[in-house]
Amino acid sequence: MMLDAFARCRLHEDFEPVTEMGANPYYRPVEERLVTGEVLVDGRVLVSAGSNDYLGLSADPRLKDAACRAVRRLGTGTSGSRLVNGSLALHETLESRLAAFLGQQAAMVTPSGFLANMALGALAGPRDTVLADQLIHASLIDAVRVSRARLRRYRHNDMEQLDRLLDGCDPAAAALVLTEGMFSTTGTLCDLPGTAALARRYGVRLVLDGAHDIGLLGAAGRGAAEHFGLESAVDLHTLAFSKCFGTTGGAVAGPADVIVYLRHHARSMVYSAALSPASTAAALAALDIIETEPERRRRALAAADRLRADLTGLGYDTGGSPTTIIPVHVGDIVPCCLLWRELFAEGVFATAMVPPSVPEGRALIRVSATALHTDAQLDRIATAFAVAGRRLGLIS
């Protein structure tokens, strides 16, 4: 008798008591998303404090109108991959605009940000090495697994360790350095100056995942590379439309020959139905707004600075993030989920991050500030953290 493959289908042992206490924070259905930055959950209006919608575009009437017009003209889906019969002129318009926006030769639109990152699996092979920051997203880890390349991870922003790892790479094989512009759980920025300098010294390609920072950082919103003045140092960008662009989908942008290669060899591109007309049109409308309304990113970052100061003042460890993501470090899973429950009771819908999304013992509440948050809503979030934290004995 062989082992039952379903026998391993169990959640983390801490989730049983968490669920019994009514503190399971996952798969809570939202009934309505309001243009005010609030959500309707279980019949209650709560302040949305965990969304990636940093610029507040997902409910913007201009994106909604663009999506509706595309549906009326092109239907609800493409029913085919881009390779065969799913390509739209609308896709190519978006790709051309994105490439120009990011200062790259070409771009390739994918059905999701996850699949944009998975496309990177076509760039490496079994003899190659991918050197990646310890905090990279799961989609990037999966891309390396698909490639069968050797994955070597360095401590977060540890340039000395990255230097040693690069020095130990096989010169007869290829190597890539893979990092994120803005990390999704901690809100920290990559050490792009240090990473780019090492990539240049060793003659390896630098790939930057800009899912969270493209649209938010830099004078023109072109992300962490623009923020650091190092756009020419990045060989390939990936991005997601589910953050600053307020819709769904993703893209890869870089040299034209690399993009053509990925169009034919990246399995996530070749074997996935194309991005829907509605999401494509919404992303185009979002790009227009990103290029013409810089005040949105300024407001989002200012709101984060205010809220971070309030939470730090209460005694919470927020990790010093300089971006719209504010990690409130708790430690273990159970108290983290209990804090989420108390925040929910106080009218704040935040995000609990537990292993494997974060390292063991580093569970946290992820708070995100957006351009839509009013000062009153920021005060409401801070007050909820004060009440919930004192109730649980996490702060004095």
Could you give the distance between the termini? 56 Å
Helix proportion: 25-40%
Number of domains: 2
The mean pLDDT is 96
Poorly predicted spans: none
Q: Biggest sheet, strands in spatial order? A: 4-10-9-8-7-5-6
- Radius of gyration equals 21 Å
Morphology call: globular
The proportion of residues in beta strands is 15-25%
Enzyme class: transferase
Cofactor: pyridoxal 5'-phosphate
Domain Aminotransferase class I/classII large: 50-384
InterPro entries: Aminotransferase_I/II_large, AON_synthase_class-II, PyrdxlP-dep_Trfase, PyrdxlP-dep_Trfase_major, PyrdxlP-dep_Trfase_small
Describe the structure.
With 396 residues, the protein is an alpha/beta fold. It has 2 domains: 12-48 and 294-392, Aspartate Aminotransferase, domain 1; 61-292, Type I PLP-dependent aspartate aminotransferase-like (Major domain) (Aspartate Aminotransferase, domain 2, 3-Layer(aba) Sandwich). It has 14 helices and 14 strands. Strands 4-10-9-8-7-5-6 form a 7-stranded mixed sheet, with helices on both faces. The chain has a 4-stranded mixed sheet with strand order 1-2-3-12. α5 links the parallel β5 and β6 (150-154). α3 (89-102) runs parallel beside α11 (277-292) and α6 runs parallel beside α7 (192-202). The longest helix has 20 residues, at 295-314.
